Each structure stands twice: as structure tokens, then as C-alpha cells.
Amino acid sequence: MTEVKSQNLNTEFNASYEQFSDAIFRYCLYQTSNRQKALDLTQDTFIKTWEYLSTGKQVENLKAFLYKVAGNLVIDDRRKKKAESLDKLTEQGFDIKSDKDEISEKENAFEGKLALEAINKLDEKYRDVLIFRFVEDMEIKEIAKILKESENNISVRIHRGLEKLKIILEENQ
Fold it and tell me: What pTM does this model have?
């Protein structure tokens, strides 16, 4: 009987990985702005979730649980993060792209970068709900479950966040 439960857990977990791994990666990438770090955090999110589920504990909403684990890992990473100088990175063998290689990338990403900078100026409580709503395309109900707040609070926070974002964008023009 426990072998059947184990197989069901494996199947369900694999399906959840297929369904949510890209979204969790995007969330981690947005939060860290580092592809490798986002990949590591995504992997850690699913490992921690697997460890939790394999002990027999139940999760009511797996998507919300995954975002909560990812969010906690991002916070932990920020606490550990130390700024490294460009010289140190160069000494470690990291290549710095030439300006010519990056011109087209910068032109294509300019508006996105402005929006990202503006969003990063928002308080975390507004930034997170706007990312969940407009980047991850989550419903207000899902966001409320992830953040363990009422749907009304989330709706108000989205509205206020958009208003604050509009002001920031107008100031930058």
C-alpha cells in the first residue's frame, strides 16, 4: 500500500514540476536578475517541496506552496548575498561582453528595463502582488492564498501599486 502511495506522490510531483517549474523559474529570475541563481532557486524550491511532501505532510494548494517556498528561498539568498566587484568577477574568468554585442539586446530590452526599475522602486508588498498578477498572470484568489491575505487586501494592494507605479513612471519621463 505504501508503494502505491509513493508512486502516486511521484506521479503528482512530476506533474506539478512540469506544470509550475517555468513559472517558478520566472519568479526567481525576476527576483534575482540572475539566470543561474534563478535555476538554482527553482531546483531548491522543488527539492524542499519534495522533502516536505515525502514526509507525508499534505499541501492544500501546491502552486501557492511552491511560490511560498520560492519566496522564502529568495529572501534567504538576499540575506547571504554580498556584492562582488567587477574586478573580482573578471579575475574569476567571467567574460565581459563588448558594447557591440549588447547593443541590440539593450535596444530590445530598454522599455522592459525601465518598467523593471520602476517596479523595483515600489515597496515589496506592492511589487510582489504586481508580479504575481501581471507577470505570472495569477488570479487575485491565488495571490491571496500565497500571501495568506484576503482577496480584498490583494485587490487594494494591486490598485495602489499600479497608482504608485504610474507616478514613478511619470516622474522618470
Answer: 0.59
